[in-house]
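Support reply, case 0932

Customer input (verbatim):
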Amino acid sequence: MAARPPPQGGDEPDTLEFGIAALAEDLSKADVSYPVTDDELVRRLDDVAVPYNAAGGTVRLSEALESVPQSRFASKAELLDQLHPVFEEYRRSSSNNILGQLRALLPF
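Our regenerated output:
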């Protein structure tokens, strides 16, 4: 049995980013300046849907920020540090349900 060779070139990314890695890219593109409030972040990023797992699960930035105990962030690092456990909890929760387990088994 042979495997299909990888596509040559193309626009497909080599890696799939989710959680704080995906949000960090969105923050860089939006050129956010710090300190920043959660309301300003949601507005600047148009309440982006942030992927939290490789299966394509997403959460709106506003919803993720509701789980963070503060509403003002002095730096990008502080923001990402506060959001990391939130995205991890979404990832864990999605893998515990039946649908999440089935998605993990499928090759696509």
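We compared this against your earlier run and they match. Two observations from our side: The chain has a mean pLDDT of 83. The first helix runs from residue 20 to 30. Please reopen the case if you see a mismatch on your end.
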